[in-house]
Every structure is written in C-alpha cells, then in structure tokens.
Amino acid sequence: MGCVPKKEKIESNITVNKEEYIKTEQFQNSFKIDTSLLKKTTFDFVKISNSKKNDSILSICNCKKDKKNNIIKIQLETAIPTQKELDTMSENFKKRNRILQTRDLGYLTKINGQFKFLTIILKDSLVKSIDLYSKSTEKEYNGIDFDSLSIEKYKISISKFDYSIASDVYGNFELQLKKGFGLFENDTILKGTFVCNNGEVSKKKEIKNWNIKKNFKNLIMNTELNLE
C-alpha cells in the first residue's frame, strides 16, 4: 500500500498531516548579510520545486532604490507557458525561456504565456513585503488574466544593508508560496539569485492593466519601422 503519513490530533479536534505540520514549523524566516556571496554576471534563474520535482526558468532582474530612506525594490521578471500550453506541451518545450518574448527578438510573430513578477521590497535590515504578480495572455486565474500573492515565508541572504549603490546589492532567496507557482503540480518552493541595477520596477497596477498582446504588436511594428 505504500507509506501513509501518520496523522495526529491537536487542540480543537483538528486533524493534521504530521509531515506537513513539521515541514511548516521548521521553515524559519531569515534576512541576513552573507559576506561569502559571489556577485554573478550572467542571467539569473528561478528554481522551482515541490520537494520531489525541480526545474528552473530564466529571470531578468530590475531594481529601484530610494537612497534617502534606504529602501530598495527588487523585481525578478520571468514567464512560463499558459496552462493550456502546459497541458499539451512536451517537457522540453516547457523549459523555454518565455520571458525573452517581451524583448525585441525580431523573429517572433505572437506572444503567449504567464508572466510573473516577483517583487521584494527591503528597508534597512527589514523585509517590508514580498509579492508575486501574475499576468497571462489567457483568462486563467478564476476567469481573469491577473493574480497576486503575498509571500510570508522567506530566507534571504544579501551582500549589504546599505542600498545607496544599487549595483553593490546582490544575494539569494528561498520562498515558500501559499499556492503553486504554476509550472507543475504543487510547485510552492522558489529559489534564486538577484543582482541589482538602477532600473525600473513595474507596479502592481501597471502589471494588472498591461495589455500584453497589444504592447507586443506595437513592439513588432516599431521593429519593422526601424529596419526600413
């Protein structure tokens, strides 16, 4: 029959799965300086896991600092296929670097996917907020094309707590989500790295109102005009 996780009762007569309860209790939030960190110079990847299956997808990091208040906003932008595509694609195609669709590649004629914006806001030695915003070319989040998720379980290591020079800020993270990221079943564990720059960070309202296909069409038109 296989191994069946032991169940036990706790107060209020609530029955819980012991393995899941212990796993949750063992995850302790942390945000610390790590002087052993190495600054990466290549693209970042977000690693996705459900503790049994692992995968990774390309991400692009942008950061915006508030020097006066010593705040930095770190945003990792990445993308995966739509759910409809995931249901029919082979494993090899699922690993394509979808986020590059939003850049001018010159040979694409259409755009599809779920675009993810992991946004971490730090002030001094505190984590102010961590949010995951999802915007899809399809209405797949309970009938709409936008979803947002606050993340409360995190482990973040960073080069320094002084954010006055954004390019000196880099680190890594591990996050536990309340629900799946969307690439495969129960993929609630995210790990990755970030290297900051002086860029622009998209706000929640901007992502929610983003007309992906219209903007992509304009990008194609501008590319064609530049080639004339």
Task: Characterise this structure.
- The chain has 228 residues and is an alpha+beta fold.
- The protein has one domain.
- It is 18% helix and 38% strand.
- A hairpin with a 3-residue loop joins strand 1 and strand 2 (14-17).
- The N and C termini lie far apart (68 Å).
- Mean pLDDT is 84; it is low at 1-22.
Q: Uncertain segments of ≥5 residues (pLDDT<50)? A: 1-22
Compute the gyration radius: what is it?
20 Å
* Count of β-strands: 12
Reading side by side through the largest sheet, how are the strands ordered? 3-10-11-12-4-5-6-7-8-9
- Secondary-structure-based class equals alpha+beta
Helix content: 10-25%
Number of spatially distinct domains:
1
**Gap between N and C termini:** 68 Å
**Share of residues in strands:** 35-45%
Overall body shape: globular
Question: How is the biggest beta sheet arranged?
Answer: 10 strands, mixed
Mean pLDDT: 84
Q: Quickly count the helices.
A: 5
Order of helices and strands: EEHEEEEHHEEEEEEHH
Give the structure's gist in a few sentences.
The protein has 228 residues and is an alpha+beta fold.
Relevant terms:
single chain, two-stranded antiparallel sheet, disordered N terminus, 228 residues, globular, 12 strands, 18% helix, alpha+beta, 5 helices
Write the layout of secondary structure elements.
Blueprint: E1 7-10, E2 14-17, H1 18-26, E3 30-33, E4 44-49, E5 54-66, E6 71-80, H2 83-88, H3 91-94, E7 114-123, E8 126-136, E9 146-150, E10 153-158, E11 170-176, E12 189-195, H4 204-208, H5 212-227
